[in-house]
Design goal:
Length: about 210
């Protein structure tokens, strides 16, 4: 992958993660919490959402690792989480789950829209290639964020329906969550690759049935 492609992927990541985090804030606001608005996070400015490690370093590491080793791990990343106060949300734990689910669902929608446009214009043009990359990146975001490991969104959705012993584990693991994520990426990368490829393939197969 040349430098231009790396920049294109990073731009798509910035746009995707901005919309992901913005939707968290919007849903929280609609459910009664204005923490994100008061902290200036209800914005399309990507620089308010960038996390140096998750937004830049992790995707670049995956890109170059794939290039050097021939691996096929989907490119993904993350952003600085949008803050919200669970006590202010309507519907209790289900409100938290709704806020958490909104981010990955935005990425799924962006992937679907990108796929639909590519199906119409083809993937031979520059726009087609960029949108094909958008499909892969957004499905990568979706697959990664629905993993039920704190502090990923999937853990907060699963928490709403989890038995008490799972909830206690999530609560204890929350403070170490980002470390668990790094361990999963670094040590379990072959398993993570297979899982993410399966999710992406499944989503694309569903898209192809609709379009």
């Amino acid at each position: 992958m040349d430098f231009g492609n790396v920049i294109a992927v990073l731009v798509i990541i910035f746009i995707s993660m901005t919309l992901h985090e913005l939707m968290h804030g919007i849903v929280a606001y609609r459910l009664g919490d204005d923490t994100a608005r008061l902290m200036g996070r209800l914005t399309l400015n990507p620089f308010r959402h960038i996390d140096p490690i998750m937004t830049i370093a992790l995707p670049v590491m995956i890109i170059f690792t794939n290039a050097l080793t021939g691996a096929a791990m989907p490119v993904f990343g993350g952003a600085k989480p949008v803050p919200f106060n669970p006590e202010n949300l309507k519907y209790g734990e289900w409100g938290i789950a709704m806020v958490a689910a909104s981010g990955p669902l935005v990425n799924l929608l962006l992937a679907f829209i990108s796929y639909a446009i590519v199906a119409y214009v083809g993937d031979g043009s520059m726009i087609g290639k960029l949108l094909t990359t958008s499909v892969a990146v957004n499905l990568g975001f979706f697959a990664f964020n629905i993993i039920p490991i704190p502090p990923l969104d999937g853990s907060r959705v699963f928490y709403a329906v989890a038995p008490d012993f799972i909830r206690r584990f999530f609560e204890a693991a929350e403070q170490y969550g980002i470390v668990l994520v790094y361990i999963a990426v670094l040590i379990l990368s072959p398993v993570l690759t297979v899982y993410m490829q399966a999710v992406i393939y499944g989503c694309v197969s569903l898209f192809s049935l609709v379009i």
